Amino acid sequence: MILTVTLNAALDLTYRVPRLLPHTSHRVRHSAERPGGKGVNVARVLAALGHETVVTGFAGGATGDTLRRLLAESTGPLTDALVPITGATRRTVAVVDDATGDATQLNEAGPDVTPAEWAAFDDRYGQLLRDADAVALCGSLPPGVPVGAYAHLIRQARARHVPVLLDTSGEPLRRGIAARPDVVKPNAAELAALTGSTDPLPAALDARRRGAHAVAASLGPDGMLAITPDGTWRATPPAPLRGNPTGAGDSAVAGLLSALAEGLPWPDRLIRAVSLSAATVRAPGAGEFDAGAYEELRTAVRVEEL
Amino acid sequence: MILTVTLNAALDLTYRVPRLLPHTSHRVRHSAERPGGKGVNVARVLAALGHETVVTGFAGGATGDTLRRLLAESTGPLTDALVPITGATRRTVAVVDDATGDATQLNEAGPDVTPAEWAAFDDRYGQLLRDADAVALCGSLPPGVPVGAYAHLIRQARARHVPVLLDTSGEPLRRGIAARPDVVKPNAAELAALTGSTDPLPAALDARRRGAHAVAASLGPDGMLAITPDGTWRATPPAPLRGNPTGAGDSAVAGLLSALAEGLPWPDRLIRAVSLSAATVRAPGAGEFDAGAYEELRTAVRVEEL
């Protein structure tokens, strides 16, 4: 099975308003709630593709109960192994402006996780690693979890020879990368924040020097750049993408991880990541992927060795 | 006891952000949740003043559970008589911009109430009216509740000789007022939408001609204007108010209703309404009132007969 870790899972709310005008009152036209947090999104894509997937991390409070109820309604072989906490799972609110299609994002910080809860998670994670073919560590850290949490979790995975992918930002990325994950998947902004360079190729090389075995950088409409022990590749989607990019990065992680777990070589991993990511941009709902577009795109993504 | 009806109760979220910039992502600095909806706010003020208060309306889903849990933590003699429904209680989100103090409001529409749930509420309301000294009908209607709901509830209260106050807007106000409530409490914008006049005195006279026995219009910093069978009065706070006006109208309703239930004459009702309203603007938390300011303001509000 593939394990995804979401320490700061979220109940994602999407509100549609005719137009967002600060300092006025809005009647929300349509509201939707779905289970969220990067690792949860990755897991939902993996399960929809038919991969045995286990979700862990933390969930608590009424928002956590709703998250777990919605997660149970997901398509495919997805198991909920979230660790209960006293604090409440955070909410995120995406306010989509119907006039422009643009979203304004409001992200709660997340629950206070106690040292005992963090220790309980650590035990659970160790047990889950035994059956894992690969593990993804995704997203921000809630208050109370040590900033070096990902470095610790990476070392545990590596000690058990489970390939580990890290997708986070800021200080948790900086510290995590030093623990030598198999793959890091920054986007262009995260790479730039980490390395100070806005040119993806030198930035990815720098990121790799900081400890990652491979760097797979997602570059939005430009696809993906991978610097790996086996070579350097760029994979690009066939045409400029139109649609909602929410969740495209999480779908790319699902593509990389599922292909890695299947033992596929890097060019095939990149094709899967880029086509799933593009199929997510094309889907009408945020964070879902269009299965038809995915099948079409798989044969249309171009990979070139650099 | 005093009964307050909130058909579209809410879980009110307040988010503080450094500055709200549409189409960007925000990390929420501080988030708070409290039980909301106009009638719930009125009830919390009444209970804090020591009045036996009963809250009814609808609550459902995980958000409804949280609302009820928070309501149980309120100060004073407050009883929860909310009717359970299958749909989920709506959320409202107030995004407070720390740079300016201004709030951007996002209000979900509310749950779909089934005909059977509306009938169950109607039964419960009839039972609760038996022990009520006064009743307040407050706020918007959720989808599924007939637009003439308030007219129906007003007729039931009047048939049992329970004084009834209506605080709503739009079509529910227009229809409710025709059922001859004892008091309506519109604000200036609601009065203007109802009557087409932006001049409060002729607008309030027009509103009264539409069926209300008395009109008590809340005019923000200008206090309150009341046109009643006993006379016409204007009550004004002593000085321009600074602070957060959220909940000031609900505190005014609590003032009017508690004084009415105690059999006080109109000038005393207005003094209580205006001083509670002003003490709410002065309180640091949205929808709370400053008890010290209330005691001070009670002797400083000026009432003049017109």
From TrEMBL, chains A, B:
Domain of life where this protein originates: Bacteria
Organism: Streptomyces abikoensis
Database matches in PROSITE patterns: PFKB_KINASES_1 (PS00583), PFKB_KINASES_2 (PS00584)
Organism lineage: Bacteria, Bacillati, Actinomycetota, Actinomycetes, Kitasatosporales
Entries under InterPro entries matching the protein: Carboh/pur_kinase_PfkB_CS, PfkB_dom, Ribokinase-like, Tagatose/fructose_Pkinase
UniProt KW keywords: ATP-binding, Kinase, Nucleotide-binding, Transferase
Domain Carbohydrate kinase PfkB: residue ranges: 11-288
PANTHER family: 1-PHOSPHOFRUCTOKINASE, 1-PHOSPHOFRUCTOKINASE-RELATED
Name used for this protein in its record: 1-phosphofructokinase family hexose kinase
Alphabetized Pfam families for the sequence: PfkB
